[in-house]
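Researcher: We plan to redesign the surface later, but first we want a full-length starting point. Tokens attached.
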């Protein structure tokens, strides 16, 4: 195989690109050195445009005709090129809410901890803003608005599961960390979709604001098909960077089950806490639980065991924009044993040690043991 082709991600060799070389395509280009001056002139000379650059990561986002890709890939300063694939919000993956009341009773309420949610946004719901506003940070990559909002509902749903305090239901529906602060990063549009590059920008922003907001947990209730090893996958690389910089990263397994090897990226990343969807059949008895057939199944593309855990994710209730609660689809009601929600949502119950006296990160799932993060 020609050496330049080896620099391309497998997806870029699909017929949808090869048979239409005139069509503009968004690419993620990893540079050997971060000097944009090397790639910029070539991109512009081929009717292309530089879309984004990064401060922490060695990537440049460009858009140009597919047919102009070969000379760029042959350049010695280019290490690898990916398609800037679409990602989507995942609606059927669970948040570990089992045992949340136990954890809260032990003092693990999220107080003093901030969870960053990269999603469709967060609406200022009373359960998040009363008696005090706990949405302490906001960044809108889609529309550039300065105040929190959610034109889809998915991100608000996730936020309620993470940190709803039950204000509007008089404590009936509460999240797993009802005293946690939130930072909302809107990287998905009103349809619940975005590009991988949007998520990369969002993760970089979280790292840059980590100390400002005391961000301890990063939630990614989204994913895209995994076409390559986590070693070279750009989303996985960004997640690894976040983890290595002290963030607990919780991600969805995906909604592409029941077939094997369907774990999405960045759920294939070994360092991430990857959560699959368990149908608890509306009971508290675990003996009748089954894996939801839509939940993505391992092993990963790297033959790694995933997901890391399963948690209830079918017919889940949480917050909706404008007030009130819903299951994000059918306005159903769930048990008052904690705010329950769908949406690949967060492994926050396993992702943060939110109790008093903590000195380092630990992933905790009350009643299911503790795993330290080093």
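Model: Full-length starting sequence:
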């Amino acid at each position: 195989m020609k050496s330049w082709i080896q620099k391309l991600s497998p997806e870029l060799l699909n017929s949808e690109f090869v048979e239409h070389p005139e069509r503009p395509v968004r690419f993620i280009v990893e540079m050997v050195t971060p000097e944009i001056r090397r790639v910029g002139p070539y991109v512009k000379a081929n009717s292309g445009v530089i879309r984004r650059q990064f401060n922490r990561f060695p990537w440049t986002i460009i858009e140009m005709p597919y047919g102009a890709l070969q000379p760029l890939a042959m350049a010695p300063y280019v290490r690898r090129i990916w398609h800037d694939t679409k990602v989507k919000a995942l609606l059927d993956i669970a948040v570990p809410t089992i045992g949340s009341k136990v954890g809260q009773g032990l003092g693990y309420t999220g107080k003093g901890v901030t969870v960053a949610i990269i999603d469709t946004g967060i609406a200022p719901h009373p359960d998040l803003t009363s008696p005090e506003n706990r949405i302490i940070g906001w960044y809108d990559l889609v529309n550039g608005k300065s105040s929190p909002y959610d034109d889809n509902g998915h991100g608000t749903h996730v936020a309620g599961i993470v940190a709803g305090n039950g204000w509007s239901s008089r404590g009936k529906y509460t999240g797993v960390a009802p005293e946690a602060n939130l930072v909302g990063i809107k990287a998905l549009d009103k349809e619940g979709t975005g590009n991988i590059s949007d998520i990369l920008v969002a993760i970089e922003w979280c790292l840059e604001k980590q100390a400002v907001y005391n961000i301890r947990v990063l939630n990614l209730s989204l994913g895209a098909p995994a076409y390559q090893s986590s070693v070279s996958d750009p989303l996985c690389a960004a997640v690894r960077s976040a983890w290595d910089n002290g963030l607990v990263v919780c991600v969805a397994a995906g909604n592409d089950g029941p077939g094997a090897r369907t774990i999405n990226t960045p759920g294939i990343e070994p360092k991430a806490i990857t959560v699959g969807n368990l149908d608890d059949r509306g009971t508290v008895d675990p003996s009748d639980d089954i894996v939801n057939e839509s939940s993505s199944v391992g092993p990963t593309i790297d033959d790694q065991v995933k997901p890391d855990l399963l948690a209830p994710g079918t017919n889940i209730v949480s917050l909706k924009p404008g007030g009130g609660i819903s299951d994000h689809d059918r306005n159903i009601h769930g048990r008052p044993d904690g705010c329950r929600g769908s949406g690949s949502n967060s492994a926050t119950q396993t992702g943060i040690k939110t109790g008093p006296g903590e000195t380092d990160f630990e992933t905790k799932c009350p009643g299911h043991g503790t795993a330290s993060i080093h």
